[in-house]
Amino acid sequence: MPTAIAVTGPDLVLPSPDRHTPSAAVLQSAVRPPRAYSLDQALTEMHTLIEHHGYVIALCPASAPAAVTQRLYAVRSVLESDRIAVVRSDLPPLGLAVLALQLRQLSVCDFSPGVLASAARLLSHYIYAGALLGSVTKLDRVPVTLQSHAKSWLPGAQFAVLATPRPELVKLSGDGSQARLTGPAFGTKMLYAPGQLAPGWVTGHLAPAWRSQEVEEARLPAESARWWATGKLVEFAAAIPDISVLYQLVSSVRRDDCHWCGLELIGDRCAFCAAPLPPPEDRPGRPVRALLPRGAT
């Protein structure tokens, strides 16, 4: 069985694009309050996933309540298992759902659990996630100028905001056709999830400007209004949809062995035991290849 990809809410599970991509496991220990779902039940839930899949990668938004992350780490500690990776992400909700889908797609490939878990950080840099907002007065996820705060009080004001990979914010004027957000330099599929705003600017202006190869509507995650601090929004995320390109992207990065748990990893830290990579002079020599494959440009 492939490594299990677990998420902290059902809204983070996008439909599988094909019959080969497994679904994600929704952790009830994160969805239900501690009083309604005991620690023993949470332990059983995680133990069952480990028994069936061998390893579990639990994606947890950095914005999740403290009780959610504390429960995940408590389960890992009590089970004394090095087969559970708790991967926290700063991506907005729809972007995190896209990341979960990409990991699900890659879980059926020949990547080891350590490489797959540490690939989450790499793939996050290639997800362009943002939102069209009707207000930025309470937004604290992206830098907002005092001028933008003031303009946010004007009736009908709308703002295009990019959260990742580099924060940007522009105010829309007129029909919004002149508003620009820095987009990806590679082929993507765009998902958009309407809240209390019409998606016309996202589908009619942003998607063509970013040369998105495909545009598809998704359900707005329940967490989105809290993350963006307003219900007047249309959330969007553009990412690489092709599993062959994702595979090339991950496989092109140098791999190392964790000096603590022995799992393979990419990057500077093991996602399972959190041990940092030793200094370069203490690592065994391996060739370093290009970070971005040709198929992603």
From TrEMBL:
Protein name as annotated: Uncharacterized protein
UniProt lineage: Bacteria, Bacillati, Actinomycetota, Actinomycetes, Kitasatosporales
